[in-house]
Every structure is written in structure tokens, then in C-alpha cells.
Give the backbone structure.
Amino acid sequence: MSTEYEVYHAKRISEIRAEKHRYYLVHKEKIMQRSTIWRKSHTERRRQIKMKSRHNVKDGMPRKRLTNLTYYVLRTNLMNLLGNKCVKCGFADMRALCFDHINGGGHREYLKYKAATFYRHYLADIQLAKANLQVLCANCNSIKRSINRESAWKHKS
């Protein structure tokens, strides 16, 4: 149940905002000076706040890097299970290898799972991965998509 203050505050929220804005307009110069002094004397704290808000830091390391590392590990594990080379031409450079859905439908599955969940889904069920996926190099994958007219974009025909 709401307290009296919460009910009162909910009714007056627009009045409170207007009151704060009027205060800011009257005291704008003083507020700006205080803000400038704080920014100059707290450079390290500002840097920490900036990093935390930009990258959502966890354990002192930006989460973006942790996520990229996670994707790489999951992708590498799945690639190793599926043979780690192109099934058509035998090319084995990981930078150009990709997962191909044998019967198509990969774009719909990507929209459903996204990258990390996609990898985890197939790592949890290896038999499903071997039945649905194959490893192709970028060239062979492009040729296959062209021949089978598989694309995320609708073809005009």
C-alpha cells in the first residue's frame, strides 16, 4: 500500500519538476560554477563514471570485451566439434570459416537466438548441430547461397 508521501508526490510531480526548473533558471550561474569546479577537481572520478556508463564495466574490465571473448570461445568450441575446416574445399583459416545451415533457414534462426545463444543452443545438443550445420569458408558459403537463392533479403523474381 502506498504511503501518504507517495500519493502526495505522485499528484505533485509536475509541480515539483516546474519548481526545480525555476530554481535552476534563477541559480544557473552558481550551479555552473560549482559544476566546473567539481569537474576540474575530480578528473579521475569523472573518468571512472564515463567508463562505467559507456561500457557497463564489470570487475574492472569493459563488458564489451568480455562478451567478444565469450563469443570467440563459444564459436571456436562449436567450430572444433564440426570439423574446423570447410566441408567443400578444405580451407581451414578460422577467420574465413562460417556456420551454414544445411537446409537453409539460418537467418530466421539467427533472429530467434542471436549469436551467443545460437552457439550455446548447438553446443548443448551436438547431434542437432551435426544434423543442421556445416562449416563452410566464406567463398563456398557465398556460392551455395547464390545457387540456392538463400538470402536474408527477399529476391525479386
